[in-house]
């Protein structure tokens, strides 16, 4: 890890190795137990990397959660968000899921037009978006196309994704400060 400070938000029982875990439940591997949806109990620019694996779909306010992640990220720090694609069964089967996201859901934080800056005061640079498809479509090479061509990914999201369903989306974002 070479001294990187990593925050695992909503770590549950599978905290990322070497990370500081934060969760609302005491039945987890959390180092810090608190309602982090009300803010992180850490100083500004404290972490090199923030990980949010299968939690963003449960937060009351996505904009506030990402603004808080931006606050505790060092300049150039990474935010890694993993969430179900909105066409996957797991997006809808949990009563805790409030949001159903697509691979373009975080454009407000990166390549948005300037007239939308009031939506999301936190600014990130989108480094990579990776979509995992169901196994059959991976074998047929469609996952490769979705992940290696933004134009094809847009076509897939608009026209094919309910036939060729997505599984998970991983967003890799860099904090711009």
The order of strands across the largest sheet is: 3-2-1-4-5-7-6
Kindly report the CATH topology. Answer: Rossmann fold
Can you give the helix content as a percent range?
10-25%
Give me the strand/helix succession: EEEEHEHEHHHE
| Proportion of beta-strand residues | 25-35%
Low-pLDDT sequence parts: none
When the domains are counted, the total is: 1
Mean pLDDT: 92
Based on DSSP secondary structure assignment, what is the total number of beta strands?
7
How many helices? 5
Give the CATH architecture: 3-Layer(aba) Sandwich
Radius of gyration: 16 Å
Q: Look at the helices and sheets and give the structural class.
A: alpha/beta
Produce a short descriptive summary.
The protein has 177 residues and is of the alpha/beta class.
Explain what the structure shows.
By secondary structure, the chain is α/β, with parallel strands linked by helices. It has one domain: Vaccinia Virus protein VP39 (Rossmann fold). Helix content is 22%, strand content 29%. It contains five helices and seven strands; from the N terminus they run ββββαβαβαααβ. The chain has helices at residues 62-72, 89-93, 135-139, 142-148, 150-160; strands at 6-9, 20-23, 32-33, 47-53, 73-84, 123-133, 166-176. Strands 3-2-1-4-5-7-6 form a seven-stranded mixed sheet. β4 (47-53), α1 (62-72) and β5 (73-84) form a beta-alpha-beta unit. α4 (142-148) crosses α5 (150-160). The longest helix is centred in the middle third of the chain and has 11 residues, at 62-72. The two termini are 23 Å apart. The mean pLDDT is 92.
């Amino acid at each position: 890890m070479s001294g990187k400070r990593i925050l695992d938000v909503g770590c549950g029982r599978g905290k990322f190795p070497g990370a500081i875990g934060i969760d609302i439940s005491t039945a987890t591997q959390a180092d810090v137990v608190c309602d982090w949806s009300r803010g992180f109990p850490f100083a500004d620019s404290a972490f090199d990397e923030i990980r949010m694996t299968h939690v963003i779909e449960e937060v009351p306010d996505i904009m506030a959660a990402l603004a808080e992640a931006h606050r505790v990220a060092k300049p150039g720090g990474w935010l890694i968000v993993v969430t179900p694609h909105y066409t996957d069964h797991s997006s809808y089967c949990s009563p805790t899921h409030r949001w159903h996201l697509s691979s373009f859901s975080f454009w407000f934080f990166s390549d948005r037009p300037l007239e939308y800056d009031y939506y999301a005061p936190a600014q990130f640079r989108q480094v990579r978006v990776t979509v995992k498809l169901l196994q059959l479509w991976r074998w047929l090479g469609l996952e490769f196309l979705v992940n290696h061509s933004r134009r094809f990914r847009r076509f897939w999201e608009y026209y094919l994704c309910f036939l060729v369903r997505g599984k998970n989306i991983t967003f890799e974002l860099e904090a711009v400060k």
